[in-house]
Write a structure and sequence with these properties.
The chain is 55% helix and 14% strand. It is α/β, with parallel strands linked by helices and 288 residues long. The chain folds into three domains: 14-58; 64-197, Rossmann fold, CATH 3.40.50.10070; 204-284, Tetratricopeptide repeat domain (Serine Threonine Protein Phosphatase 5, Tetratricopeptide repeat), CATH 1.25.40.10. The termini are far apart.
Length: 288
């Protein structure tokens, strides 16, 4: 049916019967739309819950580990940098093993050194094992305690205490990484064994300066104070040992980060130092 009208003749309004039909159609359309939106929300919620439930119930790979922050047991609380550095160096050596899944420090740094609910933390991180540790430094003597824990039943798989002189701290980092690989039955290639056992510098003072600089880079934000602090100690590290490839590499990273984030003045000199430090590191150690 067609409603014919003009400006002078006819009625532009639809008959009441058809107005009612049109109103009911609008109500039906609105109700259908609302129902579809509600259904979409429900389906999305179910999908998200299902993904979460699947992710949380899937077994973590057996050859997986998270290294939690190490406790600083030194009487001098300023030695916290040393505990942070040892933890990061052990994590770095473990990450060189291709047969292991190692969680990054970024994901673990907000946890406590010895949290109460290890199974829950392991589930959140998606790992089967947790490494806890503590470091005590007094003068030239260092004690490192580590324990490897199977998160599912909170049982200790392996633990050891290492008493070393500061000049021999590298052996601890290597021994811990090898022991963990053995406990988790991770296969090590010949090259990986060499990398894990590598001694980055023969100068203990340079290494101490490196760890102090590293501690600044491990802080959450690249503030001006953190960048300047890292630069100070890393420049000292490579001054003490010009062949310290790892020191040069980290100095390049810090300079580049400061330049890009403009945490410090992004000068040409800073950019050039970052470039030269990177080139020096790769010249000294091409497979860094």
């Amino acid at each position: 049916m067609t409603n014919l009208y003009s400006d002078e003749v006819g009625n532009r309004k639809l008959p009441k019967k058809f107005q009612a039909l049109k109103h009911r159609a609008r109500v039906r359309w609105a109700a259908t739309t609302a129902a579809l939106l509600a259904l979409g929300v429900i389906v999305a919620g179910i999908a998200m819950f299902s993904r979460y439930r699947i992710r949380s119930t899937l077994a973590a790979p057996e050859k997986s580990i998270a290294v939690l922050p190490f406790d600083n047991l030194s009487s001098d609380k300023e030695n916290a940098y040393f505990a942070d550095g040892i933890q990061d160096e052990i994590l770095t050596r473990l990450s060189k093993i291709a047969d292991l899944k190692v969680i990054s420090r970024t994901s673990t740094q907000h946890y406590k050194s010895a949290p109460e609910n290890l199974p829950e933390i392991a589930r959140q991180l998606g790992v089967a094992h947790i490494l806890e540790g503590s470091v005590q430094k007094s003068g030239e003597a260092v004690r490192v305690n580590v324990q490897l824990i199977k998160a599912a039943n909170d049982s200790h798989l392996w633990a050891d205490t290492f008493d070393r002189k500061l000049t021999d701290i590298f052996s601890v980092e290597s021994e811990v990484a090898k022991a963990i690989a053995e406990q988790l039955r991770a296969k090590l290639t010949g090259q990986e064994e060499q990398v894990i056992a590598a001694k980055p510098t023969d100068n203990p003072e340079a290494y101490d300066a490196y760890l102090r600089g590293l501690a600044y880079t491990l802080k959450t934000l690249p503030t001006s104070a953190n960048i300047l602090g890292a630069q100070k100690y890393l420049r000292e590290a490579v001054r003490l040992d010009p062949k310290f490839a790892l020191g040069w590499a980290l100095l390049s990273y810090v300079d580049a980060r400061g330049y890009i984030t403009q945490s410090v003045q992004p000068t040409v000199a800073l950019r050039e130092e970052a470039r030269q430090a990177a080139e020096t590191a790769l010249t000294l150690q091409p497979n860094l």
